[in-house]
Amino acid sequence: MKKKIALIFGITGQDGAYLARFLLKKKYIVHGIKRRSSSLNTSRIDDIYIDPHNRTNFYMHYGDLGDSLSVLKNIKNIQPHEIYNLGAQSHVGVSFEVPEYTANIDGLGTLRILDAIKSLSLEKRTKFYQAGTSEMFGASKPPQNEKTAFYPRSPYAAAKVYAHWVTVNYREAYDIFACNGILFNHESPIRGETFVTKKIVGALCRIVNNVSDKLYLGNLYAKRDWGHAKDYVVAMWKILQQKKADDYVIATGKQYSVKSFINLVAKELKIKITWKGKGINEKGYWGNKQIISIDKKYLRPTEVESLLGDATKARKQLDWKPIHNINLLVKDMVSTELNKINGK
User: Could you report the per-residue pLDDT of 110-158, keeping only the tens digit for each?
Assistant: First the structure.
């Protein structure tokens, strides 16, 4: 039996790195698209990105979701059985600073892939996975599932809503096996440094080890449904193994505030944080030392207060459920960060 060929846009990111490893274990031939950069950006996959002259199952190509020619060329040359679009400007806060770029990559980038599948007449060969986000629900009342109306509260979320609906449109208009995975927050030790969970874990680990002295945050009371990226890439794969293309919410069904996440990290580090003050003046103390402050610059122009996923459909139809709970996620992130600080 011939091996399946997968193409991953965004392979150098958290999800791309975990998905590549998962697919390689499934005996896929994996191709990844990376953007050209003046500095190496393959740290998450360096262990599998070995000498290209001795490799038969993992390949990297230059490309960009903002460049329709590179998208078309790579898909034409690779002829993948499955395409996973995990590429994006994925930081919500940054999307307020670069809204046009975010719309181009996160929204139109999806269109470029779908239209390449259509233009190359790959409808019968190639299945497509679009990485959606719980941020699309925005201000919609929780819990949120596949039938919940979208109410985006950032340029990032708005671009992802476009990507979601253009995926549905190309599925219905051109009979492409195109699916949306609406994934709620998922983290890991290789999460980007500016994302709030990694920022909290990194700062508190450094503070405990006297490498840093303070952590600055925005909204402590935003509530999120946090899972582990390792579990969520399994759901991505399962979505493309179904007989019929469809859209799925992927979530743990449990919700924690940013403040609760901080306290869980502190517990794992065996320290206790006490809180004083309210609103913008709320501060966190370790003993007599103030280690957490609120900075207005980390507050978004429009906030998403509460995201809580209902993944009943995925549990029933995909036979998927998360293996890691919030405590295992925190333990994994903290232990990895401490090893890094201690040079292990």
Answer: 999 999 999 999 999 999 999 999 999 999 999 999 999 999 999 999 9
Q: How confident is the model at residue 35 (pLDDT cuts 50, 70, 90)?
A: confident
Q: What CATH number should be reported for the domain whose range is 196-220+257-303+336-341?
A: 3.90.25.10
Task: Examine the residue annotation and report whether 156 is marked as an active-site residue of this protein.
Answer: yes
CATH of domain 5-189+228-253+307-323: 3.40.50.720
Query: Which two structure tokens, joined as six digits, stand for 9?
Result: 């846009």
The size of the chain, in residues, is 344
SS3 95: helix
Question: By the 8 A CB rule, do 162 and 153 touch?
Answer: no
Establish whether 110 is a catalytic residue: no
Is 174 annotated in the active site? no
In this prediction the pTM is: 0.95
Distances (CA, A) of 340 to 78, 271, 304: 37, 19, 32
Question: pLDDT by residue (tens digit) across 69-89?
Answer: 999 999 999 999 999 999 999
- Taking alpha carbons only, the member of 237, 235, 240, 229 closest to residue 250 is 235
> What do you get for the CA distance between the two ends of the chain, in Å?
42
Q: What is the domain partition of the chain in residue ranges?
A: 5-189+228-253+307-323, 196-220+257-303+336-341
Residue 41 in this model has a pLDDT that exceeds 90: no
189 neighbors 267 (Cβ within 8 angstroms): no
Active-site annotation holder among 129, 156, 232, 256: 156
